[in-house]
Amino acid sequence: MEQLGQKLDCVSISSLPTWDDKDKIPAYNVAEDETRTSRFPYDLILNEKIVLWEGDPTALDAMGLIHPTNEHLNENTPLTEAIHKKAGPDLQTELIKTVRCCRTGEAKLSKGYNLPARFVIHTVGPRYNIRYRTAAESALYNCYRNALLLAREHELRTLAFCAINSVKRGYPPEEAAHIAIRTIRRFLEKHGEMFERIVFVIRGINEDCYQDLLPLYFPRSKTEEHWALDLIPANIGNEDGEPVNPERKIRITDDPTRKELVNGNESDQELEVDDGDIGNHAFASMQADPDKTKKELGVTRPVLSPEEEKKRRYDRFLRQSHTEDLSDIAAHRCIYQTGVDIYGRPIVAFVARNFPATGVDLEKAFLYFIYLLDPIVNQDYVVVYFHTLSTAQNQPDLKWLRQVYHAVDKRYRKHLRAFYIIHPTFWSRLVTWYFTTFTASSIKDKVKSLKGVHYLYNTIHPDQLDVPPFVSDYDMQINGNSYFNPEEGSEVEGL
Q1: How many CB atoms neighbour CB 287 within 10 A?
Q2: Residues 259, 267 contacting (CB under 8 angstroms)
Q3: What confidence tens digit (pLDDT) does each residue in 385-407 have?
Q4: Does the residue 223 lie in any domain?
Q5: What's the pTM value of the predicted model, to 2 decimals?
Q6: Boundaries of domain holding 281
Q7: Which of 68, 306, 409, 485 has a CA 20 to 30 Å removed from the CA of 368?
Q8: Is residue 263 assigned to a domain?
Q9: The domain that contains 205 carries what CATH number?
Q10: Which residues does the UniProt record annotate as the domain Macro (predicted)?
Q11: Beta bridge partners of 197
């Protein structure tokens, strides 16, 4: 009777509100003449199968509970301890005698015993290292897909997914959430009839990620679908959501001269290019050529506040960043996302010596900048700027920097937690002082100059930072084999 009582003391999945709740959809400002097609269109049937829930996953009466663990199925985490405590000793016995182990990316099934969940699906997420990012993405994708395949094989119609990534394993939460949500979306598109409910159980650091990203992959209305068009990442994987290398597919649209299908037949008609594209107007002056053209034609639009006008310009640049060919900028590898710091905040690295400021198209550089950072700045993040061995040819004009600063969305400033300058020079200190005093005073206290890479290790684990080889070599020359001194590095504490 005690075991039966434990089974009944649970939360019914059928009682939880599904994702398709129209009352919780924000009011979006979307162009009425939007005609683009989303890669994740609004689908009421799929939305009614999705639940976003914050609570104790061991209390859900799911037919399958997805349990992230280690290869030996005994990871020391609160979730693992809670599952074993509620399930009772029989679960441990089955794992030792029958399941035995589970490799990274695999999924193994066991009974739930005294848990409300009928079965537990154990899976092992990858350890994240920026040097092997592609492998980590593929492994995490396999965790979700193999869990879904196992559930379909055993006809488990309700599932509770705990986030398989973890800060302990160093996986950036937002990147992991993209993979999780889109993998489940693609699976439901093909096998949705097999499932009644899939619950995303959110706790702690994953809460904001899923709340923010679910509308991109499971829009709750056509308006939300249109709003999400410019926020969906360029790289959404293949038809199953499996990751592909984004550096090989920077451009997500076909060549403008491609043949179009017109009434079912191929046509050599070229796509028209909007005069407002970033390559055709003066970025430095931030002129909105399409609006100017409409004004000349007598077309009027509502008067916007300065903040609304700025947001509108930024959204236009963001759209252009997803249609412009930016592969030449990406090839310089001057800016890229690396791992996360000890607080789980994404790290953006900028390598000054790789940035040919005097010979690159600065308009396209700005577009690549927002293309890369826009998905990141919705949460707290940090920037590591390697000033190492850079010259005057690597330094853009201050006027351009001011224009970039004022052109980006306020999220960039709001969520920036730290800006580390590695190997500063007198010139960089002078420019930093001038810029943060007269242009960017709101981030002045966040900028820290460090004379060596090792001073970062107070807040960033070495495995989470992709340091260019020439930076490491130079650091060794000037700092030798010195280790991090907490007293010397106290300037970065508390960020």
Answers
A1: 13
A2: yes
A3: 999 999 988 988 888 888 888 88
A4: yes
A5: 0.56
A6: 270-321
A7: 306
A8: no
A9: 3.40.220.10
A10: 37-218
A11: 158
